[in-house]
Design a protein that fits this description.
By secondary structure, this protein is of the alpha/beta class. The protein has one domain: Flavodoxin domain (Rossmann fold, 3-Layer(aba) Sandwich), CATH 3.40.50. 41% of the residues lie in helices and 21% in strands. It contains six helices and seven strands, in the order βαβααβαβββαβα. The strands form two sheets. It has a five-stranded parallel β-sheet, with helices on both faces. It starts with a strand and ends with a helix. It catalyses: N,N-dimethyl-1,4-phenylenediamine + anthranilate + 2 NAD(+) = 2-(4-dimethylaminophenyl)diazenylbenzoate + 2 NADH + 2 H(+); 2 a quinone + NADH + H(+) = 2 a 1,4-benzosemiquinone + NAD(+). It comes from Pseudomonas xionganensis. Pfam families: Flavodoxin_2. Quinone reductase that provides resistance to thiol-specific stress caused by electrophilic quinones. Also exhibits azoreductase activity. Catalyzes the reductive cleavage of the azo bond in aromatic azo compounds to the corresponding amines. Its EC number is 1.6.5.-, 1.7.1.17.
Length: 199
């Protein structure tokens, strides 16, 4: 039995294509793996604070010297990191906002990319500690960006996930969603077909 962690990052609760893709992924996965456990963390509902002095203090200050705010920030970071450590499969739902990922997803990454926990520095440089996990990234994009210099989602997320040892990453892009007509239909249909094959 595997543990699946799904991270939703769309700011929209209704009409979100990335949320639609997530729902379809979960349905396909549950049908193929009925014994697996799926946990969904919705960053639009349970917002994660951006990296600040309290979080840095929680990481770097001895426990007996931490302020109440630093302890609270560290506790949240520990919760988020523990969820990731427990997962066998990570699913990131990431609409494209201004050519990149939502700031909420960046905030989540800032909480879980932690020296000594999800990566470490050794003689050969940084080493990811989460080897063996798989990741799927479901993107929703108004235009067509895959493989172009305007795509700052896939390169960044591949680097961030690889940095903590997650090298098995599959991207499913729903593109052309704001281009209307055939572009929109084809972009969504292609992504849906890939989702059906993933499970």
């Amino acid at each position: 039995m595997s543990q699946i962690l799904v991270i939703e990052s769309s700011a929209r609760k209704q009409g979100s294509v990335s949320r639609q893709l997530t729902e379809q992924f979960i349905a396909h996965w549950q049908a193929a793996h009925p014994g697996d456990q799926i946990k969904v963390r919705d960053l639009a509902v349970d917002q994660v604070p951006h990296l600040d002095g309290n979080l840095l203090g929680g990481w770097m200050t001895p426990a007996e010297q931490q302020s109440e705010a630093e302890r609270a920030a560290l506790a949240l970071s520990n919760t988020l990191t523990d969820e990731l450590l427990a997962a066998d499969v990570l699913v990131l739902a990431a609409p494209m906002y201004n050519f990149a990922i939502p700031s909420t997803l960046k905030a989540w990454l800032d909480h879980v990319l932690r020296a000594g926990v999800t990566f470490k520095y050794g003689e050969q440089g940084p080493e990811g500690l989460l080897q063996g996990k798989r990741a799927f990234v479901l993107t929703a994009r108004g235009g067509v960006y895959a493989g172009t210099g305007l795509d700052h989602q896939e390169p960044y997320l591949r680097q961030a996930l690889g940095f903590i040892g997650i090298e098995d990453v599959q991207f499913i892009h729903a593109e052309g969603l704001n281009m209307g007509g055939e572009f929109q239909q084809q972009g969504l249909a292609k992504a849906q077909a890939q989702l059906a094959a993933v499970a």
